[in-house]
Write a structure and sequence with these properties.
The complex is a heterodimer of chains A (about 120) and B (about 120). With about 120 residues, chain A is mainly beta. Chain A has no helices and eleven strands. Chain B is an all-beta fold and about 120 residues long. Chain B has a single domain, classed as Immunoglobulins (Immunoglobulin-like, Sandwich), CATH 2.60.40. The chains are: A mainly beta (about 120), B mainly beta (about 120).
Chain lengths: ~120, ~120
């Protein structure tokens, strides 16, 4: 089954304790992206990747890191989490044919709480 | 820059009644348009998309949307809603050309179907 898999689904942590949220897709998609969803703000892009070893900042990259060493994986790293990073996070992927018309495929989300 | 406006944050509607969820966008260039649906505790999934051609687009679960270029709108409609349509709906746009173009999401509309 074609899917985007995020882990964990729920995560509670304390301020400053490094964490990683994993994302994996099995559709051979070139493009992957991370979003955070907050009430009243919709989805905001954190980072995206056009292909292996190619990443770039989205709209709200502060406090986050990513890497793309393999095509299927795109982990999101919070080196020193803070309470304002409490949010619902989504990983998404799509084909990247340069035409911008490919829809995004989303994971089921990771609800992060930083105390 | 592009933007998406979903003026209605919540829309309550009785079961079997029609519904329209409004979406207006702003862009200086041509765009692709998408509607995504998010069921409780799940990621977003594509409902329908407008790429070109007929301005009336049909999607899954009986939903349809009409692209109106002069009014820069892409409203989502369903003639008769079901309890299972209770979800949050996101309108999204993406510029057609110029290399990579990010997806811009609206803030979402929660559809509550009342039995």
């Amino acid at each position: 089954e074609a899917q985007v898999t995020q882990n964990p689904r729920y995560l509670i942590t304390v301020t400053g304790k490094k964490l990683t949220v994993t994302c994996s897709q099995n559709m051979n998609h070139e493009y992957m992206s991370w979003y955070r969803q907050d009430p009243g703000l919709g989805l905001r892009q954190i980072y995206y990747s056009m292909n292996v070893e190619v990443t770039d900042k989205g709209d709200v990259p502060e406090g986050y890191k990513v890497s793309r060493k393999e095509k299927r994986n795109f982990p999101l790293i919070l080196e020193s989490p803070s309470p304002n990073q409490t949010s619902l996070y989504f990983c998404a992927s799509s084909l990247n044919r340069g035409e911008n018309n490919s829809p995004l495929h989303f994971g089921n989300g990771t609800r992060l709480t930083v105390t | 820059a592009q933007s998406v406006t979903q003026l209605d944050s919540q829309v309550p509607v009785f079961e079997e009644a029609p519904v329209e969820l409004r979406c207006n966008y702003s862009s200086s260039v041509s765009v692709y348009l998408f509607w995504y649906v998010q069921y409780p505790n799940q990621g977003l999934q594509l409902l329908l998309k407008y790429l070109s051609g007929s301005t009336l687009v049909k999607g899954i679960n009986g939903f349809e949307a009409e692209f109106n270029k002069s009014q820069t709108s892409f409203h989502l409609r369903k003639p008769s809603v079901h309890i299972s349509d209770t979800a949050e709906y996101f309108c999204a746009v993406r510029r057609r050309s110029g290399g990579y173009q990010k997806v811009t999401f609206g803030t979402g509309t929660k559809l509550q179907v009342i039995p």
